[in-house]
Amino acid sequence: xxxxxxxxxxxxxxxxxxxxxxxxxxxxxxxxxxxxxxxxxxxxxxxxxxxxxxxxxxxxxxxxxxxxxxxxxxxxxxxxxxxxxxxxxxxxxxxxxxxxxxxxxxxxxxxxxxxxxxxxxxxxxxxxxxxxxxxxxxxxxxxxxxxxxxxxxxxxxxxxxxxxxxxxxxxxxxxxxxxxxxxxxxxxxxxxxxxxxxxxxxxxxxxxxxxxxxxxxxxxxxxxxxxxxxxxxxxxxxxxxxxxxxxxxxxxxxxxxxxxxxxxxxxxxxxxxxxxxxxxxxxxxxxxxxxxxxxxxxxxxxxxxxxxxxxxxxxxxxxxxxxxxxxxxxxxxxxxxxxxxxxxxxxxxxxxxxxxxxxxxxxxxxxxxxxxxxxxxxxxxxxxxxxxxxxxxxxxxxxxxxxxxxxxxxxxxxxxxxxxxxxxxxxxxxxxxxxxxxxxxxxxxxxxxxxxxxxxxxxxxxxxxxxxxxxxxxxxxxxxxxxxxxxxxxxxxxxxxxxxxxxxxxxxxxxxxxxxxx
Length: 518
Fold this sequence. Notes:
The protein is α+β, with helices and mostly antiparallel strands and 518 residues long. It has two domains: 8-204 and 492-514, Dipeptide-binding Protein, domain 1 (Alpha-Beta Complex), CATH 3.90.76; 281-489, Dipeptide-binding Protein, domain 3 (Roll), CATH 3.10.105.
């Protein structure tokens, strides 16, 4: 559920989509703000929808895919037991008919829908679900290991019923069953050490046509899908690394929808195209390599964070569409604590006294060269840090190269974003503060027993009041240790042609959603 660089698609179900308010777009409509999910409606059948995306797909393995485009594709082809609603606030049955959490929160019983099949027509049973979770438990390359860790045992009761037993209370389990990484795999395709085909047989609304690893590929409608039939028969993806290039494709008709087009498009007059910037549960961040000098020193990390003018970053990188944020959680979270978002170079310089950067130092900053907001943010960061004697060298990279270096710890500073599809502690708090949960504490290398204990308290909170209290503890540790620097909330800025509006859109979950046929 953690999102890394660029964004996403519906988990296990076709989410209804009708653009903003479900109204026909005016020729030069430009929209900023969330979409009203109450206006979502079905659409007549459409043969093809062309989508321009920023990066290639490296994998659609549910336990490996984490780049935006990867998760977008996985979400459209993967079938999950539950599915998030358009606002990301509620999980509804997907492949499951029903689910029930025990009173103590330590077990969960699921009943599958009748007659489920994978896209190839073979039966999907509780044995496949159990095998999927067993793979997640043992697969060494599972980047979502922390999300599956509480599942101690899966008991198959019959072909349509199974029970999950947890090592602790797991109140967010049903919500998480709607996330793409929980897509159900075919038991017979799981090989030694958890190996699966590069294009596994799944059970979502679409099926991969050929190979998704090139610069262009397509998804076709899954005739065996258990949910509502999608209105679009075929979705064609084209990789266009440049944000302006993606927008140009929509304006010229080569694409119907473009993902991550850059916030500058919000203020443009675009006849026949509408632009949207929707709030999400995601933060943008400046990632520190906490194990690389001079960032091993918490005083240097805090000084860098204090020097950042997040208000200016919000204006330059997001045209003010996304609020500045110095806290760990997005402002849309019940645990949000944005903090002081203005720059304080004087205090930052005081913190640098006695450190390796007292008399100046140099840091390299990696970023995704296909991302407009990252390039704009980097320019402000470079200026801010120069004021405290820190020289920054900016290094744009391809998405895959960037995350390869992050995974190896081969960096000092890096831009990116992180978040979830819903407001659950199993996302940003868990992955960015708990090293044991399998994501290198959001690539920082940060390790803290105190932080892990605070996160565990949030993970087991059974009501909103307890969760708020737990989040307060998490926020206090984040402020004390400064493992990374949050910059702003994240918006999925996207554009759609008027004649395609309502067939596909991106809502609060940051998923690409496709309207059902009707």
